[in-house]
Amino acid sequence: MKKNKIIIANMKMNGSLSSNEIYLTKIKNNFNNFKNLDIGLCLPYPYLFQAKKFLINTKIRWGSQNVAKFENGPYTGEISAAMLKEFDSKYVIVGHSERSTAYCESDENIADKFEKVKKYKMTPVLCVGETLIEREAGIMERVIASQLDVIVKIYGAGIFENSIVAYEPIWAIGSDMAATPDQANKMCNYIKDFICKEHSCDFKNFNIIYGGSVNPKNAVQLFASESLNGVLIGRSSINFDEFSHICSAAENS
Ligand code: PGA
């Protein structure tokens, strides 16, 4: 049976109660008929309640862009997995490079966050990717392997069941320089082999998606790649028309 394509919107630090109301109404009215897609909106934390209110009776799910690595306690400003679950969040982005760069997030922190999301039965969207210098040096596979390996070493490869890995080359994020379908394909295949073959895991539900400058122009080609189960979209997800265009391309791919 053909798998549904996964479309995750990383809305980053955008939106307001009033603009979300317009956006979520459009999403609700136009996206609920897509049969072949699993769509998730990862919003800023304060808007989870609003997303739930608008999307509750639709097939579209919501979630966040980060989570605390701790359960609870004296961690000022942090939001726990249990709290996200209370808002019926489904998807949680972990390890986005904008966070690892700005807040010096280590691979070990990311592994603990991944585990917390799994523990509360939500779906982690783990971002991995190399810098341009690392790609030019030809070490992108080694970089990705070391990012994944931290999780495998601490929690075992089996933790990747019911999760999503997003291959997001850092040079492609926010840059208008998306990976070519061939580059994305190769790296997504590499990730799949690393988790499934090298660690002998036969998952029922493990997906690999691509993120980094996905837009209506390159979406069709990206969806043609066999090894990609979907996309993680930043800028083009906050523009309803562009987002809608990408979803239609995925639905018909
Ligand atoms: P972009 O962002 O689509 O704007 O490049 C993607 C991301 O950061 O997840």
Structural class: alpha/beta
Overall pLDDT metric: 95
Please state the oligomeric state of the protein chains shown.
single chain
* Helical residue percent band: 40-55%
Give the end-to-end Cα distance, rounded to a whole number of Å: 15 Å
H and E order: EHEHEHEHHEHHEHEHEHH
Total helices: the number is 11
Question: Any overview of this molecule?
Answer:
The chain has helices at residues 17-31, 48-55, 81-86, 97-102, 107-119, 132-136, 140-155, 181-197, 216-223, 235-238, 240-251, and strands at 5-10, 37-42, 61-64, 91-94, 123-128, 163-167, 206-211, 230-233. The chain starts with a strand and ends with a helix. The protein contains eleven helices and eight strands. Helices cover 43% and strands 16% of the residues. It has 253 residues and is an alpha/beta fold. The longest helix is centred in the last third of the chain and has 17 residues, at 181-197. α2 (48-55) links the parallel β2 (37-42) and β3.
Q: Notable features of this structure?
A:
8 strands; 253 residues; 43% helix; alpha/beta; binds 2-phosphoglycolic acid; globular
How do the helices and strands line up, and which of them pair or pack?
Blueprint: E1 5-10, H1 17-31, E2 37-42, H2 48-55, E3 61-64, H3 81-86, E4 91-94, H4 97-102, H5 107-119, E5 123-128, H6 132-136, H7 140-155, E6 163-167, H8 181-197, E7 206-211, H9 216-223, E8 230-233, H10 235-238, H11 240-251
Parallel strand pairs: 1-2, 1-8, 2-3, 3-4, 4-5, 5-6, 6-7, 7-8
Helix pairs in contact: 1-2, 5-7, 7-8, 9-11
Bound molecules: 2-phosphoglycolic acid (PGA).
2-phosphoglycolic acid binds next to strand 8.
